[in-house]
Amino acid sequence: MIKTIGHSTHSIERFVDLLKNSGVELLVDVRSMPYSRRHPQFGREKLVKSLEAAGIVYAWKGEALGGKSGGSYIAAAARPEFKDALGRLIERSADTTVCLMCAEKEPLDCHRTVLVSRRLAERGVTVEHLLADGHTRPHHEVEETLLARKAGDDLFDDRTQLLARAYDARERAMKGGST
């Protein structure tokens, strides 16, 4: 299993508690730029120190798994470095509780879900999203929410086709395009 979380506007103490309560051992930062002007406690250097004090290892993988690689998420997911990083995440999750981190509070508002978790799920990985209130949500439920938002489904399309279109529409909405 691989978990995800958005740092949102949490205090660093609350954020670390969320991770510890979920048994996270390795936090993988998938932000393209591992800094936050509004929330400096989530800048790479400060975050590393806070996590280290809590016994959680930090790794930045935004160069391979970041959402600002230019172009579409389909193009980003096709890059060899993206595929390699995904494979390494899957391998690492076999014996370590891994959690992907980005900034956005809601999973469907973030590339950690629309780009990365989507491809993990396609590879058969169980993904669980840690929510700001301390609850968790399985990725398949997030996908059902995404499908429910998509109107005008074609009766002849299977779930895979419907989900692909819903993800594409969500990406366009996130990047400021039409839904």
Fold and architecture overview:
The protein has one domain (2-140): Tetrapyrrole methylase, N-terminal domain (Cobalt-precorrin-4 Transmethylase, domain 1). The protein has helices at 12-21, 44-53, 62-65, 73-78, 80-92, 111-122, 139-149, 159-174, and strands at residues 2-6, 26-29, 57-60, 98-102, 127-130, 136-138. Helix content is 46%, strand content 14%. The two termini are 31 Å apart. The model has no long low-confidence stretch (mean pLDDT 93). The chain is globular, with a radius of gyration of 16 Å. Strands 3-2-4-1-5-6 form a six-stranded mixed beta sheet, with helices on both faces.
Please describe the structure with a list of short key phrases separated by commas or semicolons:
6-stranded mixed β-sheet, single chain, Cobalt-precorrin-4 Transmethylase, domain 1, 179 residues, alpha/beta, 14% strand
* Radius of gyration, CA atoms, in whole angstroms: 16 Å
Structural class: alpha/beta
Query: What number is the mean pLDDT?
Result: 93
Spatial ordering of strands, largest sheet: 3-2-4-1-5-6
Highest CATH level, the class: Alpha Beta
Q: What pattern of helices and strands is seen along the backbone? A: EHEHEHHHEHEEHH
Provide the CATH topology.
Cobalt-precorrin-4 Transmethylase, domain 1
